Amino acid sequence: MLFVRIAVVICVLVTSAWLFAKAASSLKFSRINMVSAIFYFMLVFNFIGGSLIYVGFRNHYLIQKVKQETTIDSAYYSFAYCAIMLPLVLLVVKKLFDGFTHKYAMNIYVGHDIYYSGNMRRVQALTFGLLMLCTLSTAYVFLHLGYFPLLPMLTHRSELNLLRQSSNRSFRGNQYVKNLFMHTLTPFVSYFAFIYFRITRNRIWKGLFAYSAILSVVAVTYDFSKSPIITYLLGLYLIEVVMGNVTDSKRFRKLVIAAVVLILFFYVVVLDAGGSLFAFNTGPVGRILLTQIATLFLHFEAFPSYHAFLKGASFNGWMSVVIPNAAGIRSGRVVMTTFNAVGVENNTAGVMNTFFVGEAYANFGVVGVIMAPVIFGVIIGVAAYVIPRFKKTPVAILAYVQLTLQFLTIVEGGFVDIFYNAAMLFLMLVVVIICFVSGPNTRSCSTQVQRDHWFA
Question: Of 211, 228, 341, 362, which has fewest CB within 10 angstroms of its CB?
Answer without folding.
Answer: 341
